[in-house]
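Kindly review both lines to help learners:
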Amino acid sequence: MPLSPLRRIAPALALSACLGATYLAPTALALELRGATYFNKPPWNVDLVSYYTTVWQSRAEYYFTISLDPEAGPSLGGLTIQQTRGVDTRFPFFVERTSAFLGRPRRQGARVPVEASFDNDARRFTLRFPEPVSPGQTVTVVLKPWNNPASSDTYMFQVTAFPAGPNPSPAPVGFGTLRIYDPDWP
């Protein structure tokens, strides 16, 4: 039997009263503590897919997919994606070609506006959704390198989610793993 809206938010209201926090309207379901916005149920998993996995291969696209829990609270306002492992730390990206859509690779839905910047020294993308992604949605961000890395290795990317709202508190989502292989030539 589903809980009434009041029974679902009552524990959060009690917690916010104890911590001196402000709880936003039940329709927003965002938790605000000491001026920071938090997810009620943050995303906790990222899938990384690429259909081009050979060194130097062009036209590669890296699909990072995140599903938001229907009870996440606030919408998804942004992400950071940072390369944390991999021999090649200099392969460039077409930052201006970064895109996002609802759904998963090869089952894409509506486009989602996204603004992207890339700090090459930190190997970190900072992504902002001008129209935040609602709880219960699955969103895929597409990063496009000029070509795959020059060296075969296992490349790892740490993903962090930020809720939409004032002073968003980061929520670590996990690591996307990308394996890049040498060509299979005789």
Q: What stands out?
A: The helical segments are 5-19. The first strand starts at residue 22 and ends at 23. The mean pLDDT is 86.
